[in-house]
Design goal:
Layout lengths: L1 H39 L4 E8 L2 H10 L6 H7 L4 E7 L2 H12 L5 E7 L12 E10 L4 E12 H16 L6 H29 L16
Helix pairs in contact: 5-6
Bound molecules: ligand 0O2.
The site of ligand 0O2 has 10 residues, from helix 5.
Amino acid sequence: MGEFRELRDEFTRFMLCYQFGIDEVTTKIKILQQEFTHIHAYNPIEHVSSRLKTPEGVLAKAQRRGVSPDLESVRAEITDIAGVRVTCAFVSDVYRVFDLFTGQQDVQLMLTKDYIASPKPNGYRSLHAIVQVPVFLSDETVLVPVEVQFRTIAMDFWASLEHKIYYKYETQVPQQLLDGLHEAATTAARLDSDMEQLHHEIRGHPEQEPVPQAAGPTV
Ligand code: 0O2
């Protein structure tokens, strides 16, 4: 009985650390969002969401990847147990927020996958970063890996539909739908590019440029 309790406590602590990692990253992104809104009068972040992989999801991925079913191996090999998604209006904002976030002193960038520069064959686009953030517990500091996905509204729209279709057809998606999705991905990329251009044109007109407000003294 005691051993089971120990195992349960160890697992609870394991999963909790990932939730704390999500909380840390979400807070950082929300601070940037608030700062931009209130100080620079321009907000590059549309919304922020997060998800903690379920224990079943973690085990399924570990099995798929041939990872041994002990917490140390899972911790080392499965880096997307904690996930945060940052949605921006424009591609330039995606890279801007990525740079600001990953440039923070306590954010350790472990890996970047730029599916915007190199989209996946199905058309998927997003900028992924695996980062480690420190989580301060009562008795130790743990470095928690978090996968942060940065994307535009158009990329997000496409990915959520593709995800639904993929699950509906249980990975056996009819070719016609795959072709349609690929075409929609091209349309979404064109929309991003057109919107970016319009955005630059508007920002190029000083009378429409939001006036940055002076920031107060740094504390
Ligand atoms: P969920 O439900 O979002 O958690 P793998 O995870 O094994 O596919 P890898 O290298 O760990 O491979 O991850 P990668 O390529 O960085 O992608 C991980 C996450 O990105 C996925 O998590 C999705 O959220 C998203 N993603 C990647 N490719 C696609 C795609 O083609 N379509 C959509 N809609 N999303 C994608 P999960 O855990 O698969 O799903």
